[in-house]
């Protein structure tokens, strides 16, 4: 098994985290069970003190077309999958426009936007525990109960990349904050928007140190320079309790917080 030293304050999309050594799994490696898996850390807030981490290596970065199916390695960047679909005029992944991550991360999070989500065109996943058809995997909005580490995902594809649809996602992305973030911090509660609720409690633009609830989108926590885990967590806890106080709604975290529990 290979090791890699990584600076999470550069690697993670929100630019917070220590320098750490992690294990890189390639084909044939047996995953060590006590390690926490990360993709490309676009939905993770890292604490200064972390458990042992692992990630998938280059062996899991590939895309193959087999009839109406795409077989995609879990370390494949979402942007690469989107480009592949554009290049080969394939439809069904336009919603990945501006959605960072790896294919493993997008399956684990059931990532998506609006009415589009990863499980829509998923057929099955290959994991360290075997092959699982979509119907065997409990999933919901930004949630999937995975049986293990995703090595590969098989999706159905249609012909015809919809450039108009992709352009509409691109326009949507232009309205999102440009500063480093981990995307939406909370899931939208049924029938409402976490951003609307946070804004209504007066926290839009609210700052702690170099972290702030974005003035552009109140559900995005942005790093304005040297943001810390402590300030990020304080803002998350503040928004969580204010939304309970104002609306009686308990927002559920969408991002993953990784910290050493031991
Ligand atoms: C600017 C910005 C915009 C975003 N917009 C959206 C959006 O519109 N919609 C949306 O849904 N998300 C959005 N996100 C969040 C993020 O892009 C997705 O959640 C993405 O799918 C995470 O992929 P990742 O590889 O970075 O996973 P990570 O953040 O590294 O990990 C997330 C979770 O996935 C698990 N995981 C990763 N790889 C695997 C694997 N191979 N097998 C099993 N589990 C795995 C990890 O253990 C972790 O629990 C946004 C993020 C940013 C920074």
What does this structure look like?
With 262 residues, the chain is an alpha+beta fold. The chain folds into three domains: 2-59, Uridine Diphospho-n-acetylenolpyruvylglucosamine Reductase, domain 2; 61-167, Uridine Diphospho-n-acetylenolpyruvylglucosamine Reductase, domain 3 (2-Layer Sandwich), CATH 3.30.465.10; 179-258, Uridine Diphospho-n-acetylenolpyruvylglucosamine Reductase, domain 1 (Alpha-Beta Complex), CATH 3.90.78.10. Helix content is 22%, strand content 27%. The protein is built from six helices and 20 strands. The protein has a five-stranded antiparallel sheet with strand order 6-7-15-11-12. Strand 18 (211-213) and strand 19 form a beta hairpin. The longest helix has 19 residues, at 229-247. It starts with a strand and ends with a strand. The mean pLDDT is 97. Bound molecules: flavin-adenine dinucleotide. Flavin-adenine dinucleotide binds next to helix 3 and strand 9.
CATH architecture of the largest domain: 2-Layer Sandwich
Class inferred from helices and paired strands? alpha+beta
* CATH uppermost class of the largest domain: Alpha Beta
Our count of helices gives 6
The CATH topology of the largest domain is Uridine Diphospho-n-acetylenolpyruvylglucosamine Reductase, domain 3
> Which whole number gives the mean pLDDT?
97
Biggest sheet strand line-up: 6-7-15-11-12
**Helix share, percent:** 10-25%
> Which regions have little confidence, pLDDT < 50, spanning 5+ residues?
none
Question: Can you count the beta strands?
Answer: 20
Radius of gyration based on Cα positions: 18 Å
First and last CA, distance: 24 Å
């Amino acid at each position: 098994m290979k090791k890699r030293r990584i600076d999470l304050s550069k690697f993670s999309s929100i630019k917070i985290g220590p320098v750490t050594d992690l294990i890189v799994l390639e084909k044939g490696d047996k995953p060590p069970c006590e390690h926490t898996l990360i993709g490309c850390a676009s939905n993770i807030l890292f604490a200064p003190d972390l458990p042992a981490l692992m990630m998938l290596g280059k062996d899991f970065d590939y895309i193959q077309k087999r009839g109406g199916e795409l077989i995609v390695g879990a370390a494949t960047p979402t942007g690469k999958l989107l480009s592949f679909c554009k290049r080969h005029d394939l439809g069904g992944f336009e919603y990945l426009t501006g959605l960072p991550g790896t294919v493993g991360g997008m399956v684990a999070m059931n990532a998506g936007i609006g009415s589009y989500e990863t499980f829509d065109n998923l057929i099955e996943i290959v994991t360290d525990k075997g092959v699982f058809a979509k119907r065997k995997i409990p999933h919901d909005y930004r949630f999937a109960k995975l049986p293990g580490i995703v090595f590969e995902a098989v999706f159905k594809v249609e012909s015809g990349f919809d450039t108009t649809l992709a352009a509409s996602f691109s326009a949507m992305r232009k309205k999102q904050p440009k500063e480093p973030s981990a995307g939406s911090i909370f899931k939208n509660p049924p029938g409402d928007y976490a951003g609307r609720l946070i804004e209504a409690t007066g926290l839009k633009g609210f700052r702690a140190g170099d972290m702030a609830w974005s003035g552009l989108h109140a559900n995005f926590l942005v790093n304005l320079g040297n943001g810390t885990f402590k300030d990020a967590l304080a803002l998350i806890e503040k928004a969580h309790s204010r939304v309970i106080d104002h609306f009686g709604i308990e927002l559920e975290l969408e991002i993953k917080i990784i910290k050493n529990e031991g």
